[in-house]
Structure formats: C-alpha cells, structure tokens
Amino acid sequence: MTNIKSKSQSRSDDAEGPDGGWGWVLVVAMFVSSSLVFGLMRSLGIFFVEFVQYFEESAQAISWISSTGLAAQQFFSPLAAALCNAYNPRVVVMTGGFLAGLGLTLASQSTCLVHLYLTMGVISGFGWGMVFTPMVATVMANFTRRRALALGLGFSSIGLSSFAFNPLFQLLVETYAWRGALLILGGLSLNIVPCGALIRPQRRSKAPAKVDSETKSCASILRRIASYLELSLLTERPYLTYTLGVTLFNVGYFVPYFHLVAHSRQVGFSEYQAAFVMSAAGASDILGRIVSGWFSDLGHFRVVHLLTLWTGLAGVFIMLLPVSSMSGSYTALMVISLLYGFCSGALTSVVFAVLPMIVGVERTMGALGLLQLIESGAGLLGTPLSGFLKDVTGNYIASFMVAGSFLLLGMLTMTTLPRFFSCTDPAPPQRRSLDAKEKVLDLELEQMNSSPSDKKHTVESNDPANSKLC
C-alpha cells in the first residue's frame, strides 16, 4: 500500500511539479499566441494616426476601434471558459485563432468606421477572447512552484512583439498602406491555430447513465451553465475585491499603447522616433516580466504585495510620460518609457498568479473568464476617455494623468483584500474538480425529479430503526 501511495503521489507531483512537464510546451504556445493577441493589440497605435487621416474622424471616434476589440476580448472570455469546461480547450483556442485572423482580414476591406468596429473590434476581439483565457488557465494548471515564472515567460512575448511590431507595422503601412498591412496581420494571426493544437485534450469521466428526461429542463440547464461559469465566485468578497482592483487599473493600463505614438508625434518627434518609443517600452517590458516572475517565485515577498508595488509604479510612470516630453527632450521621454515598460511588464507576470491563491486552481478557468467579463467595461471606457480628453484639451497630458490615477486607485483597492498586511498567504480554497461538481448536480437533479414514493423508500432504507429490524 505504501508503494502504491508513493507512486500516486509522485505522479501527482510530476503532473503539477516545478518543471511542469508538457507545461513548458504550453508556455511556448502561450508565448506565440500572446504575441499575436496583446502584442498585436499594443501595436495598433501605428494605425491610429492612419485612420484619423483617412476617415477624417476625431481621436475619440477612432479610439473606439481598439476599445471595442479589447472589450470584446474580455467580454467573451467567460464564454470561452465555459466552452473549455464543457468541451475541449484545444478546439476553443484553434477556433479563436481563426476568428482573430478573419476579423483582421475583413478589416482590410473596410470603407467606414462601423466596418472596423465590427471586424477589428467584435470579430477579432471575440477570437482573442477565445485564445487568451484558455491558454493562461492551461499554463497555470501545469505549474505550482514556478507558476509566476511560467506566466512571465509566456507573457514576455508581448514585450518582444511590441518591440518588433511597431517599426514593422510602420514599414508595412508605408509599403502596402493600412489595408495591405491589415491583410498581412490577418494571415499572421492564423498562426494561433497550431498553438491551440498543442493543448492536450482533457480526460473527462463518462456521462452518468440514464438520467431522467425531466432533468433536461431549463432550470437544470441554467444550473449547469452556472457551474461552468463559476458564478458562485460573485458571492465571495476576496474575489470581488481582486476583480474591482484589476478593473480599475485596466481603465488606464492600455492608454499608452494606443496613444503614446500619437502623443510623441504631436510634440514634434518623427514617425520612426515615435514608433521607437513604444519599441523601447516593449523591450523593457520583456525584462520586467521575466524578472518579476523569477523574483516572485523566490518567495521572499507575497505575490499580492508585489502586484500592488508594480501597479503603483506603473501608474506613476504613466503620469510622467507627458511631463517628460514637455521640454522636447527625446531622452527624457525614452527613459520614462523604459521605466514604464518594465513596471507594466512586471505587473502582468503576477496579476494572474494571484488568482489561484484566491479561488483555487480548479476554479481558475471560470474565475479568469468572469474577471475578463467584468473588466471589459473598463477596457471599453479607457481609450475613448483618453481620446475625449485629448479632443477637449488639445493634447494628451490630461489623458495620461487620468490613466495613471486609475492604476493608483486600483492599487489602493488591492490593499483591502482580506489579510493583505499579513506576511503569509492564507490557505487556498479547498479544491473541487469539475467532475465532482457534475456528479453533485446530477444527484441533485435526480432527487428533484424522483417520485415521492422513491424518496419515501430511500428515507426508509436509510432509517437506522428499519436497519435494526432487518
């Protein structure tokens, strides 16, 4: 018996051990897919100026393109999580990669802003949502002690692609115009499909035998959907506090990626100088993600404390971005951009690593989907608000000031988490697998639909007095 137990324990350790096994292959897949989702999304600021000039619209109207894509990515994440829990993450990610490429391809043929809202915004955003949540949750499920490092390595491609994509997109726009550039990006996004194919199908238990037809009622279907979406998390204070904090700093987090290039060009720098500012921020972003993931896994500080630190610093440097360029110093703008890139990258390595500590590993997929849904409103608000402030004031100073203040507000919200000021992490919630939840649901549904005589027979058979008589 001891040998059997030791073997089973060693197998479980291998499945979620420090090296992750196949999890490192999934990190590579996440590395590529993240670059083609958020790396591409961050570099769309190159198209911002082109769209303003071509469609002759305000900065606020053009900002809705990127905001719609970001909001759609976050809004459809719960659907992606539910589909993964119900079926297969591999199929979900592959489908998302196809939709992301399809949306950008159709966007290249747009003749008005509404077309861009629907293609780059809704269709590509839907595809991005079906890629991001399953990939992140799958990687986290394959790591324990090195989870933050794995996420940092997977997310480091966002900084690398930001460094490479900005000058590349500028070259594509100058060579093929914005239509040809979007067509090329659509084909590039299809590389997400083979990344999804690397996800191994999950083993699921067989369906329960012969469930009464009445169990297929509307109520039972809704209860099953609620279990897939992990809606019970909305009643737990730690998760709600964490979600509120992430939502607040999500309002301002993406503003520099969409408006820093336009701000740099407005203050007098050339097109390639403006693009290189974002490339420099992307390069330091890579370093920040890896260093943050490695340092947090050392265990010297709680991950939630590191999260608040990086969030506060990122907010301060966002507010300093327009101040550094007021004197016309390109060097000052570059230094602040490097510091901002490092802190924003360090932030992303730990923001999702905190989630399993709050809800448990088994509920990470649904929790991540709900988080993305709730913060989709913030993503939809942030960039248009920045564009509106630019239209009102004539520059981007107020835009960056407000964006940075939202990150600081999110940092303060995180400090209200239960036991935040404790030096040790609280015990994680008790794990409960999806199969166990399905069995409980099936048993409850069978009891609800059983006849009164069956219930009476069950009670009598379980009565101790009756057992004694037998």
What keywords describe this structure?
single chain, about 475 residues, mainly alpha, Growth Hormone, Chain: A, about 0% strand, Monocarboxylate transporter 13
Offer a concise description of the structure:
This protein has helices at residues 2-15, 23-42, 45-55, 59-75, 77-86, 89-107, 113-141, 147-189, 192-197, 218-229, 237-253, 255-266, 271-297, 303-324, 330-351, 355-359, 364-393, 397-414, 434-449, 452-462, 464-469. It has 470 residues and is an all-alpha fold.
Number of strands: 0
Shape, please?
Answer: globular
Radius of gyration equals 24 Å
Report the β-strand fraction as a percent range. under 5%
Helical content band = over 70%
- Distance from N terminus to C terminus (CA atoms, Å) equals 36 Å
CATH class: Mainly Alpha
* Secondary-structure content class: mainly alpha
Residue-averaged pLDDT: 79
CATH superfamily: MFS general substrate transporter like domains
Main location: membrane
Function: Proton-linked monocarboxylate transporter. May catalyze the transport of monocarboxylates across the plasma membrane.
Transmembrane segments: 21-41, 61-84, 91-108, 114-136, 148-165, 177-199, 239-260, 272-291, 303-324, 330-355, 367-389, 395-412
Biased composition (Polar residues): 461-470
